[in-house]
From TrEMBL:
The lineage of its organism: Eukaryota, Viridiplantae, Streptophyta, Embryophyta, Tracheophyta. Residues 1-11 have a biased composition (Polar residues). GO terms for cellular component: photosystem II. It comes from Rhododendron griersonianum. Residues 1-33 are annotated as: Disordered. Keywords: Photosynthesis, Photosystem II. This is NmrA-like domain-containing protein. Signal peptide: none annotated. SUPFAM superfamilies: NAD(P)-binding Rossmann-fold domains. The keyword DNA-binding does not apply. GO terms for biological process: photosynthesis. InterPro entries: HCF244-like, NAD(P)-bd_dom_sf.
Length: 287
């Protein structure tokens, strides 16, 4: 795999050095500060169409790349071929710093296509000689992505302003690793009621992957189901953060814990539901 679809958009904001951040399914925007992200006009680029990338990088100082392909897109097309084009273009246009978001332990799981591609991309950036920061993220749950991305974004901007971090590999993790069942139990306790949970055994995911690998038109599904192999292993997707906090000059107390986030969330949502119930004739409200 280590051989050389996503739409992107950029928006201008403010004066001074500009940063372009590519995130989500390849969406990108340009801003000169944390407050400026998402503001201003937008220009479109597409990692599936390398010819659209150069215009997006004009006048840009730093690229923050956290884009990935949509579920219906081949992993290799966006996450490898599109990224190689972006990185080569950044090098050719003299981008001063390239921040790449990768996956924790990607070097240990070559059997998972996306993780192998992430590791290959890390090596490609280093070999090309770009001034870079590589940030590996531990696994996070989709429903909690908003909470986690706030801390990730803040730590990333702190790293950008710290010259000691240039050329380093950082791993961002939470204060502790949570299993799905632990999160469910915490939510049940805070909500005061049991949750309806549907569980899909890892063995079923394995069989499904084997079947989908038999057909070319379902090969992309098989690639994404490869994560089931990681889920079934004893790998813990978490790392101590004390050294990283020290390097970035961040106090661990400033990072929001999952317990605090969910407690605030349920306090607010339950209050709103009670207010709705008081204004409604319905006696029971389910959520």
């Amino acid at each position: 795999m280590c051989s050389g679809g996503s739409k992107s958009s950029t928006g201008d904001a403010g004066e001074g050095d500009e940063h372009i951040s590519s995130g989500g399914h390849g969406d990108t925007w340009k801003a000169d500060s944390e407050e400026g992200i998402g503001r201003g006009l937008r220009r479109q680029a597409d990692l599936n169409k390398p010819e659209t990338i150069p215009a997006t990088l004009v006048g840009v100082h730093t690229v923050i790349d956290c884009a990935t392909g949509r579920p219906e897109e081949p992993i290799k097309t966006v996450d490898w071929e599109g990224k190689v084009a972006l990185i080569q273009c950044a090098k050719a246009m003299g981008i001063q710093k390239f921040v790449f978001f990768s996956i924790h332990n990607c070097d240990k799981h070559p059997e998972v296509p996306l993780m192998e591609i992430k590791y290959c991309t890390e090596k490609f950036i280093k070999d090309l000689g770009l001034n870079h920061i590589i940030i590996r993220l531990c696994g996070f749950m989709q429903g909690l992505i908003g909470h986690l991305l706030q801390d990730v974004a803040r730590l990333t901007f702190i790293a950008l302003r710290n010259e000691k971090v240039n050329g380093k590999l950082l791993t961002f993790a939470g204060p502790r690793a949570w299993t799905t069942q632990e999160v469910i139990t915490l939510c049940e306790r805070l909500a005061g009621q049991d949750a309806n949970v549907t569980t899909v055994p890892v063995s079923v995911l394995r069989v499904t992957r084997q079947v989908t690998r038999l057909f070319e038109w379902t090969s992309d599904v098989a690639d994404r189901l490869a994560f089931s192999e990681v889920l079934s292993s004893d790998t813990v997707f978490s790392v101590p953060m004390s050294e990283t906090y020290g390097l970035l000059g961040v106090d661990a107390k400033d990072v929001v814990t999952l317990e605090k986030y969910l407690q605030d969330y349920f306090t607010n949502i339950l209050k709103k539901l009670k207010d709705m119930k008081a204004q409604s004739k319905q006696s029971d409200i389910y959520f």
